[in-house]
Amino acid sequence: MAEVATRQKEIQFSIRTRASTGQFKSVHRVQRALAALLRRLPADLEENDDLKIERAELSQELKDFIAYHSLGT
Fold this sequence. Notes:
- Helix content is 84%, strand content 0%.
- The chain is mainly alpha-helical.
- The radius of gyration is 19 Å and the shape is elongated.
- The mean pLDDT is 79.
């Protein structure tokens, strides 16, 4: 019976991990697409305050991502 409970926990953890990974990949894909679009905007939009905020947020998220994944190495 203990093996069944252990296996059930392993399966639940695997499902949660897969769901979290899928969500992370999806969000990361959107962030990369947004960053690519921001790079393609005309130079006269460089001073737009909303775009400055968005660039700063993307930059911080990228730094957080790198820091998080470098902990495992």
